[in-house]
Write a structure and sequence with these properties.
This protein has 11 helices and no strands. With 232 residues, it is mainly alpha-helical. The protein is globular, with a radius of gyration of 17 Å. The N terminus is likely disordered.
């Protein structure tokens, strides 16, 4: 993606440092063919179908990660906040998927039969393991890149002139929506709060999982572009 991508960096001790750590990775994400072609409406339908099926699998597991983060939250407000996010992952975004599944000729049987690609399988298992075994702060750092990177990408694409007839506009509208950005910024702020209360060792682990999840975000989009499947 080009210079029209908006700056979504957040000022804050831990998250500012974390975003700086993935600066070069974000430059690679912004240039991914899948996102470039989605932005201008020229993404091959078979690539988008592959991406949507894998994203449906991913969201099923991501919702469970959000529920685990809620269970580990230090106060009721955060419990409700992350339970609400888990619900949205299942309902709102699956509603978006439903429209695309119909539009691109994907049946419910196709969704049921879909298997995770190697990258999707690795990413979701990393998130689930981190959420189960890590502290609340570490689990927060693992789920944050999905919120933050999608916000960054969505706002960047939404800021460009709209392409008339772009069949992927609903995707752009969803992740470029100010409400989505507000939710992502809230998770960023909560991660900074958790980092301030964490030990030095825990903060190092938070940084490690943030970077790893960000790498998986790149891998997920790249694998969809390549129509990745199991080699054997």
């Amino acid at each position: 993606m080009d210079g029209s991508m908006q700056n979504t960096e957040i000022t804050g001790s831990f998250t500012a440092a974390a975003w700086e750590r993935i600066k070069s990775l974000m430059a690679e994400i912004e240039q991914l063919p899948l996102l470039e072609r989605l932005s201008d409406g020229t993404l091959p339908p078979e690539v988008f179908r592959h991406y949507i099926l894998q994203d449906a699998i991913y969201l099923k597991h991501y919702a469970r990660c959000l529920a685990i983060v809620a269970a580990k939250a230090p106060d009721n407000a955060q419990v409700l906040r992350f339970l609400g996010s888990a619900q949205k992952a299942i309902t709102v975004e699956q509603g978006l998927h439903a429209g695309f599944l119909s539009q691109f000729g994907i049946s419910s049987a196709d969704v049921t039969a879909a298997e995770p690609s190697p990258s999707c399988f690795a990413y979701t298992n990393f998130l689930l393991a981190t959420a189960y075994h890590g502290s609340h702060a570490v689990a927060l750092s693992a789920i944050l890149p999905c919120f933050w990177i999608y916000m960054h990408v969505g706002e960047g694409i939404k800021g460009r002139p709209a392409i008339e007839g772009n069949v992927f506009q609903a995707w752009i509208n969803t992740y470029g929506d100010p409400q989505f950005a507000a939710g992502a910024r809230e998770v960023i702020a909560l991660t900074d709060i958790a980092a301030r209360a964490a030990s030095e060792t825990e903060r190092a682990e938070m940084m490690d999982v943030f970077v790893r999840a960000s790498q998986y975000e790149w891998m997920f989009w790249d694998s969809a572009w390549r129509l990745e499947s199991w080699p054997i």
